[in-house]
């Protein structure tokens, strides 16, 4: 196999891997956001404990659904990753300091989101001016 074919295969695997990761993350956030927007009793209870009111549950649900959709649109992948990263960091802070629950799943979601945001940082270039 030539070096060019090897580079092509590596690039193709990278693209497939990023798409698979984005699809899994988008599905998770669509489900979580949908549960919040639908008023699942567990979500209502969690946001009651957080203490910001139910408007924050709706806000978070919208952020998750919109972020997941943006993650899947190639031109807005970076923005979607940043939005979902912010939600994950907020969830980790709430779980650690308010709910006193395990934060590992928020961290596990934040790490690949940060990698996706970094990989697509060129899409966020207009935000620094």
Total beta strand runs:
0
* Biggest beta sheet attributes: none
> How far apart, in Å, are the first and last alpha carbons?
45 Å
Low-confidence parts lasting 5 or more residues at pLDDT below 50?
none
Q: Helix share of residues?
A: over 70%
What is the ordering of alpha helices and beta strands?
A: HHHHH
Percentage beta strand? under 5%
- Mean pLDDT equals 92
Helix-strand makeup class: mainly alpha
Radius of gyration: 17 Å
Shape: elongated
What's the number of domains? 1
Give the number of helices.
5
How would you describe this structure to a colleague?
The chain is built from five helices and no strands. With 129 residues, the protein is mostly helical. The chain has one domain (20-128). Helix 3 (54-72) packs antiparallel against helix 4 (77-99). The longest helix has 36 residues, at 3-38.
